[in-house]
Prior knowledge:
It is built from 6 helices and no strands. Helix content is 77%, strand content 0%. The chain is rod-shaped and about 85 Å long.
Amino acid sequence: MSKTLTEKKVLKKLGIDDFRHLTKDKVITMASMLDKMDPEVAKKAIEQFPDFSNTMKEILIEYKASIDKALESNDESVKSYYDSCDAIIATCQRELEKDNLSFDQRREVVDQMILVARMKGDKDSENKKFIATLVVAGLTAIGVVVSALGTALGGDTKIDIDEIKKIN
């Protein structure tokens, strides 16, 4: 991809007069444009915003805290759901211990237990998808930061799959 963004275009997209007015909120937007910028424009931006890497680090720390909070909330929610399912299954188990139940009544109780067990399994799958989504989002954020810093500092951020295979 050719680097086509000039300083004027970048400043316009960021809605600022010069890179000294770059705010923490706009750093991620700028980082996402670095690979499209002329290298000299990227260097000029970084020079005028010397705290760029520290700001990116702060953003990642805040992002990690948000992910941690989401995971903690998710854990509490899932545990509560599992506890409710376990209580229902325990109640059904006590019902089955009654001697006066007919075969059909027992079958109905067992069917309810199976239904609750399936619901618990579905919640587990849903939870794993949620965690996977958070992991992908986190890795994407890290990738953007690493790529942005690498591009801004003139590094080669291409990943060579053959080189990775050699390491393994």
